[in-house]
Amino acid sequence: MTRCVHLFFMDGVGLGSADAAVNPFVTAHLPNLTALLGEGWYLNHPGRVITTPRASLIPTDACLGVPGRPQSATGQATILTGRNVPQLVGEHYGPKPNQAVASIIRQGTLFHEVVAAGRSAALITPYPQGYFDAIDSGKRLLSAVPLAATSAGLPLMTADDLRTGRAVSPGFTGQAWRDYLGYSDVPIMSLPAAGAQIAAIARGHAFSFFEHWPSDRSGHRGSLAEAVAHLEMIDAALGGLLAAWDDAGLLIITSDHGNIEEKAHRQHTRNPVPTILVGANHAELAAHIHDLTGIATAVRQVLAL
User: Fold this and answer.
1) What value does the mean pLDDT of the chain take?
2) Would the pLDDT of 280 be above 90?
C-alpha cells in the first residue's frame, strides 16, 4: 500500500505496577498485544524499550516537565503538534482545550501539515447528530482531536460515515449507537472486524486518527473487573487491526496520560504511557521518541512532511 500512518489513540492508558489488585492489565487476557510485545509489556519499567521483529514499545513521558497530573487537552495537543503544550501554557489542562490550548492547535497540527502537502487526512471516529447540535448551540466544546481536524478544514465523520464503512465507532462494534443513541440501522461489527475496518480505512489516507476515548472513562469509573473487560475488548479490536495491517506503513498506538492502570483511585496518573510502533523502521523511529512530543516527529519522518 501507499506509505501511510495510522494513529490508534487510547485515552487514559499508562504503564503501571505488577499489583493485580490495582492494575487491570495484570489479570487481563491480552493475547494479541502479548504476542506482539511479549509477557509483561504493560509494566512500568522506566527507560525499558521493548523491540520485537514487528514492533517497538517505548515508555513515553506524558508529564513533560510540568508539575501535576497530565490532562487530555494538553496531552492530545502535544501528540498532534509535537510541541510541549503543557509547558507552553504553563499547566496540564483538560479535558477540553481552553483558549490558550485551542490557539496552539489552530496554529497547526499533523492534520494541517498533511492537508497542506496535498495529501489525505482523516479523523475516522464518527459523531452522532446530537453532538453536532450541542456544538452548534454552544452547549459543548470540541475536544482537542476534533478541534485539530476541523481547524485543518476536515469534516467530522457522521452516522452516515459509520453506516457506509468510512468510520468506526469509538466503542468499535457500533452497539452503543443502537443502545444509547437511537441509530437502529447502524451495522454491528465484531471486535476483530472493527479493527480490520480501521486498517482498511487507513489505507485510503496518508494520515488517519482513531480516537478510543472510553478507556479514560473506564479509568475514572467502574470496577477493576470492568476495567479488565475493557482492556480485553481493546486487545480484541487491535488483534483485527494488527492482522490486517500492512507493515509498509506505520501504525502508532499511544495515549495522552495514565489512568486505567491504577484502579485504586479515579484520577489520572503520572505514569509513562505506552507508545507502540508497528511497521517499517519501527526500531529506528522508536529511538527518537522519549515523550509525547516525539510522536509527531515520527509521523513527519515517515510521511516526509
Assistant:
1) 97
2) no
Q: Is pTM, for the whole model, over 0.85?
A: yes
Domains parsed from the chain with CATH numbers: 5-66+109-303 (3.40.720.10)
Whether 2 has a pLDDT exceeding 80, the answer reads no
DSSP codes of every residue in the chain: ----EEEEEETT---B-S-TTT-TTTTS--HHHHHHH-TTTTB--TT--EE-SSEEEEEEBSSTT-SS---HHHHHHHHHH-S-HHHHHTS---SS--HHHHHHHHH--HHHHHHHTT--EEE--B--HHHHHHHHHTSS---HHHHHHHHTTPPPB-HHHHHTTS---TTSSSHHHHHTT--TTSPP--HHHHHHHHHHHHTT-SEEEEEE-HHHHHHHSS-HHHHHHHHHHHHHHHHHHHHH--TTSEEEEE-SSB-TT-TTSSS-B---EEEEEEETTHHHHHTT-SBTHHHHHHHHHHHT-
